[in-house]
């Protein structure tokens, strides 16, 4: 059943981003993640929930399809439309990306799609948010499979492929043809782009960076494509569990989510939680805040500028 995404009568559309849940077999620590997700959804009342990868720690699942069905049950019980992009750990166990995609499509409220078979990855697709008063498109949400690990001997993480970039550009043209101004759009994927280094090192950011940015070592130009297309105003990733900053780079806000799962590494004093994103119909901007597991809402994160770097003084 396809769930319709639509701006509310007040002109708002709210998204909750959960990332890096790292669910395994439903152990007590997994159940703690489930309670957190349910509580945040009940409190924020979003129009859509997005899981940005590493939903499972696939290698730790006895049966990855069973584990994914546990996630589907949690999402369905939340009573809200939901969707995902894959991370690098999801298919490391007994189920492939295609297998896991089939499981997620069993959910009545799932709006996840496998995407074109001739484009690398599983789960490259676009969702449209409709105007509140009619069925015409008002905003776009792009979902991209950022892969797992480098396919060459350079090591590190995978990168978004040229064919995916071509797919994105064609979708952007298709949805914005004959428009004076492109529809505002957001993009979700798991592994941060190399430009996350640039925005942190050379621009003002808001939030924390407690670990290295684990971007791919090859830059295939996806950010350039986003900039040239002109519709995407924000990107949202996970992957690095104890980074949660946002920063503007050439008109696009590059954002981390807030790591959600307890069955994986974290940092003392850095509570699990979610990023909340709210679009306003007709505006090319968005609000965003963090909702943490202690119930605290963080609307203003600490500012970081290049001049605030730490230097060693002899």
Identify low-pLDDT runs: none
Distance between the termini: 65 Å
Number of strands: 14
Overall radius of gyration: 18 Å
Estimate the mean pLDDT confidence.
96
The main sheet orders its strands as: 4-5-6-8-10-9-7-14
What is the overall number of helices? 6
Order of helices and strands: EHEHEHEEHEHEHEEEEEEE
Please, what is the oligomeric state? single chain
Strand content: 15-25%
- Classify the helix fraction into a percent range: 10-25%
Describe the main β-sheet briefly.
Answer: 8 strands, mixed
Using the alpha-carbon principal axes, give the shape: globular
Structural class: alpha/beta
Structure write-up:
This protein is of the alpha/beta class and 314 residues long. The chain is 23% helix and 22% strand. The chain is built from 6 helices and 14 strands. The chain has helices at 28-44, 64-78, 97-104, 162-176, 195-202, 222-229, and strands spanning 12-18, 48-52, 82-85, 125-130, 137-143, 185-188, 205-206, 232-237, 246-249, 252-256, 273-280, 286-292, 297-298, 303-304. It has an 8-stranded mixed sheet, covered by helices on one side. A 6-stranded mixed sheet has the order 3-2-1-11-12-13, with helices on one face. A hairpin with a 6-residue loop joins strand 4 and strand 5. The N and C termini lie far apart (65 Å). The model has no long low-confidence stretch (mean pLDDT 96).
Summarize the entry for a quick read:
The protein is of the alpha/beta class. It is built from 6 helices and 14 strands.
Give the helix/strand layout.
Layout: E1 12-18, H1 28-44, E2 48-52, H2 64-78, E3 82-85, H3 97-104, E4 125-130, E5 137-143, H4 162-176, E6 185-188, H5 195-202, E7 205-206, H6 222-229, E8 232-237, E9 246-249, E10 252-256, E11 273-280, E12 286-292, E13 297-298, E14 303-304
């Amino acid at each position: 059943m396809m769930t319709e995404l639509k701006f509310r009568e007040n002109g708002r559309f709210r998204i909750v981003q959960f990332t890096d849940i790292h669910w395994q077999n439903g152990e007590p620590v997994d159940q703690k993640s489930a309670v957190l997700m349910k509580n945040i959804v009940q409190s924020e009342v979003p129009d859509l929930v997005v899981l940005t990868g590493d939903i499972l720690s696939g290698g730790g699942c006895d049966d990855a399809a069973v584990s994914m069905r546990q996630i589907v049950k949690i999402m369905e019980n939340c009573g809200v439309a939901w969707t995902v992009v894959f991370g690098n750990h999801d298919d490391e166990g007994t189920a492939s990306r295609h297998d896991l995609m089939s499981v997620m499509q069993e959910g009545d409220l799932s709006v996840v799609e496998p995407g074109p078979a001739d484009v690398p990855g599983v789960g490259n697709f676009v969702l449209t948010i409709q105007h509140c008063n009619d069925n015409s498109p008002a905003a776009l949400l792009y979902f991209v499979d950022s892969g797992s690990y480098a396919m060459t001997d350079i090591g590190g993480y995978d990168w978004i492929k040229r064919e995916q970039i071509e797919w994105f550009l064609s979708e952007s043209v298709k949805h914005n043809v004959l428009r004076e101004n492109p529809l505002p759009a957001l993009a979700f994927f798991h592994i941060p782009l190399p430009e996350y280094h640039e925005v942190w090192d050379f621009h003002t950011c808001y939030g924390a960076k407690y670990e290295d940015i684990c971007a791919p070592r090859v830059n295939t130009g996806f950010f350039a494509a986003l900039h040239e297309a002109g519709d995407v105003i924000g990107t949202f990733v996970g992957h690095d569990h104890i980074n949660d900053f946002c920063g503007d780079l050439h008109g696009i806000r590059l954002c981390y989510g807030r790591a959600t799962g307890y069955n994986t590494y974290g940092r003392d004093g850095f509570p699990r939680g979610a990023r909340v994103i709210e679009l306003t119909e007709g505006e090319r901007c968005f609000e965003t805040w963090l909702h943490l597991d202690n119930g605290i809402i963080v609307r203003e994160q600490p500012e970081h500028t290049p001049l605030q770097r730490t230097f060693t003084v002899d």
